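Support request, priority: normal
Reporter: lab tech (M.K.)
Component: structure prediction queue

Hi team, I submitted a job for Tryptophan 2,3-dioxygenase family protein from Streptomyces omiyaensis yesterday, and the status page still shows it as pending. I've pasted the exact input below so you can check whether something in the sequence is tripping the parser. The sequence length should be 237 residues. Please let me know if I need to resubmit or if it's stuck on your end.
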Amino acid sequence: MTAALTYADYLNVDALLGLQETRTPDSASRSVIQAEHFFIVTHQACELWLKQVTIDLDAAAEAMVPPYGPEDDELALEFLDRTVELLRVLHGQVVALEKLPLRHFAEFRPYLDGASGAQSAQFRLLARLLGGDRQEGRLYGAFERLAEHRGVTVAEVCAQGPGAGVLNRIADSLLDVANGYWRWKMTHLALVSKMVGNRGGTGGSSGVDHLASRVTMPFPELRRLRAQVHEKLLSEG
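Reply from support: The job had stalled in the queue. We restarted it manually and it finished. Here are the results:
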């Protein structure tokens, strides 16, 4: 008879809890080793949440391109709204890292060698989905196609506001995603600046300068169209 599936088996808890391999020598103080463990857990958790974020944003984009189902626009909105909450979780991970003592970080940091968060493949995937200040990503392109399928432009969606129904709610959610992404990256930038100042980063990056160059605000076209509506309302008022 097959044994019943347990919580630990379903989540592979033993394997999961065995993935934290600190590099600090055993001769270091217990506090430093525990600090590195905290550092590893936080970054591993971020990678797990990033996996879910990219899965959800990819699904949202898929729901907004043909062939369309009768509820695909609402489905896209559900994925986007969940991403907004997950970005708050990622932001919280960075806030938690503020409790990493500087003296402990300075002691174990040399053992990171060439490892750097800048090497995260999932972050690069997220950047392609969202785009940046000057270039739209896949997600916005999918929204444009959905609006076109509904017989309107994104500019008309912005002008109609709530009258555009679910398309307006998707536009709002896209901006919420963008703002959550920006807040997460800015908080990380502030943390790194606090911890290492202007020192170079691990992995050969320029540290704070490198991070600052990657803090972008997605969906510039949507923001521009919203700004036009704002200006029009001001002039009419």
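The chain has a mean pLDDT of 92. The chain has one domain: 7-112+119-236. Let us know if anything else looks off. Ticket resolved.
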